[in-house]
Amino acid sequence: MVDLAPLRASPAFARLWIGNAISGIGAQMTVVAVGLQIFDMTASTMMVALVGGIALLPMVVAGLWGGMLADAFDRRALLIASSLTGWGAVLGLVALSTWDAALVAEGGRAPVWPFYVLTTINTVAATISGATRSAVTPRILPAHLLSRAAALNGIAMGTMLTLGPAAAGVLVATVGLPITFAIDAALFTAGFLGVLGLPRLPPLGAVAKPGLASLRDGYRFLRQAPNIRMSFVVDIIAMTFGRPYALLPAIGAVAIGGGPVTVGALTAAAAMGTLLASLFSGPVAHIHRHGVAVARAITVYGAFVLLLGAVILAMALGWGGPVAAAWPQVSWPALAVAAIAMAGMGASDEISAIFRSTMMLTAAPDDMRGRTQGLFTVVVTGGPRIGDLYAGIATTLVALWAPPLLGGILIVVLIAVVTRAQRSFLAYDARRPTP
Known about the structure:
Its main location: membrane. The chain has 435 residues and is mainly α.
């Protein structure tokens, strides 16, 4: 079972972890609700995919700049500022969704573009918060507990992704989108209290002033850090070709059936896989070949992505019977297999994330952690946005089954190629961490 030692060793980490888990439930509700809102307004998977695509460039800038800020300023103060910015964006979504609901009652619709703007602001704030929070962890925990902390963070993420999307699916179907967004705004309080409970965290040693010089220092460090670079590459491959979430509204509407409840159920299945992998993560402390573990976990991830594509293709060929975009008019066998695929994806991705994040925190020095974590955050949040675009384009050009079916094959093949090309990654030993 998971090791709870980090929660006992550091009350500050415990408060931050609990607050992040609670507020993250609301954040994941909003992720699902925004997709459902835009699909309801446009009936277009491509328009849903643009939520991530539009936010991609601002998120990349935010990750790089936020990482520099985390190396230059008090990390607690930066977390407070970015958290309040994200909260304001969610309150804006509450107001905008309420306005749209009022217009629907009168036979009209609100414009779509403000949803993209507010979601982008929220993404930027979350990117800066994520990079800073990760850089905080080695300052409030001893090094030997970092892999355990990564596993605990997986439990928090699994809880968010299990309860948030499931609740979003039910709430959107019952009480509507505005209240769903409002609940996220209310749950934000817990995360903010966790941030307030941190001690002051000013920079250690020389301060790297944000700017081009700081970026060049980070670039020079990464040029000499092949293992950290490869951890970015393999995650980008997995998220670019194995990101199914932009497809879920269409899967619930036309492939498997069940509408918003199916969207919530499949998203929650992935989160349950994440949660179970974290709960049974005790052995991670005894695994030292982190590069091998990451490569194998992502290969398994690709196999489950392929399984999801096979399910959607089977339904397109008429093997699952008639379905409709209303619960419970759903193909139960297809839903069951798709849920298994999503759970497998969540579990294997979490195993990969535990080892990748531990490599990040142990192999990089503290004065580089903000910038490396900023880039890491760009990768783990930007990769899915590229994946959303890939899913939208492939669906538009081919069919709904094409992105996961072809993507799963590409993941398995590309991971085998790139990891064999970078032998030091497969030889990485956590007992002698080298960037």
